Amino acid sequence: MIKDSIKEKIASGMWEFRKPIPSEAELCRIFDVSPGTVKRALQELVNEGYLYRRQGIGSFVARPNFENSLYRFFRYDVGKDKSRPVPRSKVLISEVIEAPEDVCKHLMIEKGSLVVHIRRVRLFDEIPLVYEDLYLPHELFEGMEKKDISEKLLYPIYEQEFKVLVVSADEYLNAATANEEQAQYLGIGECSPLIEITRIARTFGEEPVEYRRSFGRGDRFRYHVRIR
Amino acid sequence: MIKDSIKEKIASGMWEFRKPIPSEAELCRIFDVSPGTVKRALQELVNEGYLYRRQGIGSFVARPNFENSLYRFFRYDVGKDKSRPVPRSKVLISEVIEAPEDVCKHLMIEKGSLVVHIRRVRLFDEIPLVYEDLYLPHELFEGMEKKDISEKLLYPIYEQEFKVLVVSADEYLNAATANEEQAQYLGIGECSPLIEITRIARTFGEEPVEYRRSFGRGDRFRYHVRIR
DNA sequence: CAGTGGTCTAGACCACAAG
DNA sequence: TTGTGGTCTAGACCACTGG
Description:
2 copies of one chain form a homodimer.
Chain A: H1 2-11, H2 24-31, H3 35-47, E1 51-54, E2 58-61, H4 66-73, E3 88-98, H5 101-107, E4 114-124, E5 127-137, H6 154-162, E6 168-177, H7 180-186, E7 193-202, E8 208-217, E9 223-227
Antiparallel strand pairs in A: 1-2, 3-4, 4-5, 5-8, 6-7, 7-8
Helix pairs in contact in A: 1-3, 2-3
The structure holds a DNA duplex (19 and 19 nucleotides).
């Protein structure tokens, strides 16, 4: 199955993001298969989100867009212009601590390891929508706790300053109700509905590099499933 | 695009469920295209959930499995045997009423039309997990309010007794908190987290035939998204 | 056995982008 | 104009199913 060979090369980071992978004709030669087979394999990888292709230009390794994740989950229809500004953050905690047990488990690190812990509130158009805790392995993110992240997205920082590229993630949604602190920071009543989103973000080889628990305002949350 | 022609025949109900559609070779003749094209079209329809195929037997029109929907959303890991019994229902209300405004909108019926309204609690292994309201156009479901549905699934009843076949649906998830009645029936505290699932179920031609608002216990809810 | 789908061959022809 | 992907051709060969 040449599809799996291609997928491995993508997963291993052998082909760079935003640069074209070998053309169909070259892949035919490389793997010694017919054009139809290469076309089919590439199309399937597009469907699975690993590639995107542009007629006349080439095929490229796709990157997951995590900001879309938030926008997928939350109705963010305040204001009608389509521009999506970087959400601001209000940092409540930024520290290095010994990892709690559940964090160790999800990040697959030794008990007692150090992690960077960040707690923040994310504001969209100045409206607080999400309260979240993040945990990063200290080994990979030494110094992260000193960065100013109030106006920035995290994943570009991971990539540029710590050479950690997030390529996939698992998210789990739960229902919850706001505790006192969450209610206060999100400007809602205690016991208001919240959506809890737990994310384990991974780099190449499925290695977990971030564990995140986000609590979003339930009145702004919406998720759509088409059954068919 | 022969794929769209095939999709239309499926959506129109021209080919029956569980009976094979014409074979690849026949489709080649019918549409006057080459085998490869037919194979590709059929494979894409499988990916989109319209068909399933069995080597050596044929290609069949798929039906959405709605029970899977609930089981997808709720952790139902009480007991370890994999058998999934039909959930029991405790019917609280079963009546014919004038449709409230939002129901008219979602069912796309005239203001003032009659609908069958059913309110019930669904029990899984005797544990109440879901509290829900259903609205059905009275025109299509005359007499539905008199049926005993406590031990049965609804969609087979729609199909067998009312000749209404549900073929697709849209579901919207929201976070909510339990009101007094919901809390009582679900055996949880008031203000406990709930997941609200709004479903619009459709028959052929996208015609809405059921509007349903379900409230599931938040502590049993879980949804998983893989980002990539 | 005949008939089905599953995978692959070895291209042709077109639309589109960049130089 | 050259090179790219998008769609389709016209099958071959195999594995599997049912009678």
